[in-house]
Amino acid sequence: MENIALIESFSEFKDDKLIDRVTLMAILEDVFRNALKKKYGSDDNFDIIINPDKGDMEIWRNRVVVADGEVEDPNSEISLSEARKIEPDFEVGEDVSEEVKLIQLGRRAILALRQNLISKIHEHDNTNLYKQFKDLIGEIYTAEVHHVRPKAVILVDDEGNEIVLPKEKQIPSDFFRKGDNVRGIIESVELKGNKPQIIMSRTSEKFLEKLFEQEIPEVFDGLIMIKKVVRIPGEKAKVAVDSYDDRIDPVGACVGMKGSRIHGIVRELGNENIDVINYTTNAQLFITRALSPAKVSSVKIDEEKKTAEVFLKLEEVSKAIGRGGHNIKLAGLLTGYELDVIREGNIAEEEDDVELTEFSDEIDGWVIDEFAKIGLDTARSVLKQDVADLVRRTDLEEETILDVMRILKEEFED
């Protein structure tokens, strides 16, 4: 009865930990065998009988009867006089089975049993959790914000599992409050001691790819393939898509009427600007498409060096480079080529042009850098721009831009 009562008290873990009774019984047997080894030196001559249906157990100690005074191993042998206290008709050489009550192990051993059981169940849970999330790596997962720390957001899923979203795996514009639902991909599962640490990411290219699978039926069904994804999280991304079916326009299907299909993805990523591009094995054409929205005049490729000279009209250069150089950087990553922009234009004007850095005594260096970020590094390239457009594309005030243009105009008037 003592054994049954103890089993039932241990079974409270079953409900708390959602562990099935059979597994609990297997863990119990392992725990009890460890306790028997500690007390008797070996568990080889013990039978542990567990009934998972009834939740009861029995421990039986098996010994051989030897003549009085000839006991060499008290764990595996019992004297004849001791054996006859159990059953009066035992003889030398016979086997004796005696039930062991838990109380015989001692109070301290029973407390150790309980602690060992807790440890084993946690170990079992952690192993299962590790396997479960290892299978989910690269998949989208949703969890709720539990609390926000300076270097990470701690999330909890519906089953109470803790998931970590590190600061560097968050989109720069992300802002979370307790209770918010957060989507990301399970990027990795690492064992910290015996406990698995589950890492989520919202900056991974895989996250964007999986969002396309979720939001665009043709991608989910395999009619449209995502060939490659590159992104600067929260700023800009480029996605190359293809289809085996000539009747399907992969770009149109992904973007949708007036951007209806891709809008949800853009919103999820903090209004990240997403260019969807038709994939092709023609490297020149692929580079041309990757530099969208700029119109490329021609491309000259060096396959050995994996470089490409891209020729553009002067007014297209800033579009090709993009704000902060993001467009040309992503185009290079998408195509696998190092891209070098070559300006086409009026030769006389180009020869007469002046690098902005030549004006460093009149124009602050940080202002010159702002123009360079959008591909404007000469005087004439700046003067050709619309002031309102420059205010929108740079971090410069209108007054500063007008002042720069005045200085540049004076150069050519002189």
Description:
There is one protein chain. By secondary structure, this protein is of the alpha/beta class. It folds into 4 domains: 2-131, 2-Layer Sandwich (N Utilization Substance Protein A, Chain:P, domain 4); 136-200, OB fold (Dihydrolipoamide Acetyltransferase, E2P), CATH 2.40.50.140; 205-344, 2-Layer Sandwich (GMP Synthetase, Chain A, domain 3), CATH 3.30.300.20; 347-413. Helices cover 40% and strands 25% of the residues. It is built from 17 helices and 15 strands. The chain has helices at residues 2-10, 12-17, 21-40, 80-86, 107-134, 205-215, 217-220, 250-255, 263-268, 283-290, 314-321, 326-335, 347-352, 365-373, 379-383, 387-393, 398-413, and strands at residues 46-51, 56-66, 77-79, 95-99, 140-148, 152-156, 162-166, 181-192, 195-201, 224-232, 236-243, 273-278, 298-302, 307-313, 338-344. The chain has a 5-stranded mixed beta barrel. Strands 1, 2, 3 and 4 form a 4-stranded mixed β-sheet that branches. A hairpin with a 5-residue loop joins strand 6 (152-156) and strand 7. Helix 10 packs antiparallel against helix 12 (326-335). The N and C termini lie far apart (108 Å).
